[in-house]
Structure to design on (367 residues):
């Protein structure tokens, strides 16, 4: 049966890199036996501009009925002054929640050709290949929140007669920890069989539960080596010796932070895709970079993270790992051939634009 892909170009460089993804999908359909069709919808600032909401109802409906979603990027300075509920990020968070996309897979791979792009010395990062499994629909992102005025609010020995107080709640149930832990163990099984669970169990109740549940789930995966690390130490270890990690599993908030560190280790956030999956294997795929408003519309953005997101989409949702392998091989080929967009070029090195990079990947796919 023809599978349905929803394209969400969003904001900033999103539309430009979506053009390249569509180019790739078209060639895969016409010449490589991909049985898929696709349509587009608005999200983020583009949703707000067109329909007054970052996640318009028509977009949500289309997302629910799609087999997979390819989202480019949301956000931009133009929307910074909107109320919180209308900000572009709400479109993204709304989709994650509405589709129950609790498993977020964020690989950080350093391509040997780009070893110089990292801010770390090559010996620390060459051949880096780690995966962060981030819980994506729970924790402080979705916990109870409020901003209120309280009387006689205590701060140590101070008593504030009238204080404005804002709170966000970090809450995890055993159910939520267990299912993300299973995703992480299953994924580790397919890789280096080492899983590091990151928490703040020395301080937080939610982290203590997290650790207990991960230890319980581990009994079903005796072939995977489990370790635990406190998040502050994990941040340090990622910078000190990132190659010690295979798979990291962590909460929504810690995963947000650690995945940015991991991305920077590769020196080229323009290269990293990500996948967010639900229980049914339905997935949303996105480049890890943002909407890069500073270079939007100039045709210079790196489309490779977007094209590698297409590869993840084919592998995890459309079950076409064979085509995913082809895309990844094609990306390696263009890098080996020395083709570079501005973000991954060394000073003085020749640069090509978004469309030329997309064309090069398509050409490198071969027959
Ligand atoms: C990410 C982003 C989002 C997040 C923002 C845009 C809400 O930083 O996907 O990592 O914090 O989850
Ligand atoms: Mg983030």
């Amino acid at each position: 049966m023809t599978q349905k892909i929803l394209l969400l170009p969003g904001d900033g460089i999103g539309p430009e890199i979506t053009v390249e993804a569509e180019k790739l999908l078209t060639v895969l359909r016409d010449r490589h036996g991909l049985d898929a069709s696709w349509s587009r919808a608005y999200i983020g600032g583009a949703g707000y501009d067109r329909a007054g909401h970052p996640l318009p109802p028509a977009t949500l409906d289309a997302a629910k009925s799609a087999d997979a979603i390819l989202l480019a990027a949301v956000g931009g300075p133009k929307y910074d002054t909107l109320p919180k509920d209308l900000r572009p990020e709400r479109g993204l968070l709304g989709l994650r929640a509405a589709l129950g996309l609790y498993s977020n897979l964020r690989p950080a791979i350093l391509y040997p050709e780009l070893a110089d792009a990292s801010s770390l010395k090559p010996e620390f990062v060459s051949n880096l290949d780690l995966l962060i499994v981030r819980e994506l629909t729970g924790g402080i992102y979705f916990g109870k929140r409020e901003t209120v005025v309280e009387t006689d609010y205590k701060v140590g020995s101070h008593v504030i007669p009238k204080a404005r107080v804002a709170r966000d709640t970090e809450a995890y149930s055993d159910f939520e920890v267990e299912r993300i832990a299973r995703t992480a163990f299953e994924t580790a099984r397919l890789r280096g069989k080492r899983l590091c669970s990151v928490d703040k169990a020395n301080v937080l109740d939610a982290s203590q539960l997290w650790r207990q549940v991960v230890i319980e789930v581990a009994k079903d995966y005796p072939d995977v080596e489990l370790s635990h690390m406190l998040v502050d130490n994990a941040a340090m270890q990622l910078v000190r010796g990132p190659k010690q990690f295979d798979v990291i599993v962590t909460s929504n908030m810690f995963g947000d932070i650690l995945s940015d560190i991991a991305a920077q280790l590769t020196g080229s956030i323009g290269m990293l895709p990500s996948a967010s999956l639900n229980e049914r294997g339905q997935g949303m795929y996105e480049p890890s970079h943002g909407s890069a408003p500073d270079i939007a519309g100039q045709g210079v953005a790196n489309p490779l993270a977007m094209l590698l997101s297409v590869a993840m989409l084919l592998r995890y949702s459309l079950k076409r790992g064979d085509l995913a392998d082809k895309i990844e091989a094609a990306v390696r080929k263009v890098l080996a051939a020395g083709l570079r967009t501005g973000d991954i070029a060394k000073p003085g090195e020749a640069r090509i634009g978004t469309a030329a990079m997309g064309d090069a990947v398509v050409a490198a796919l071969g027959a």
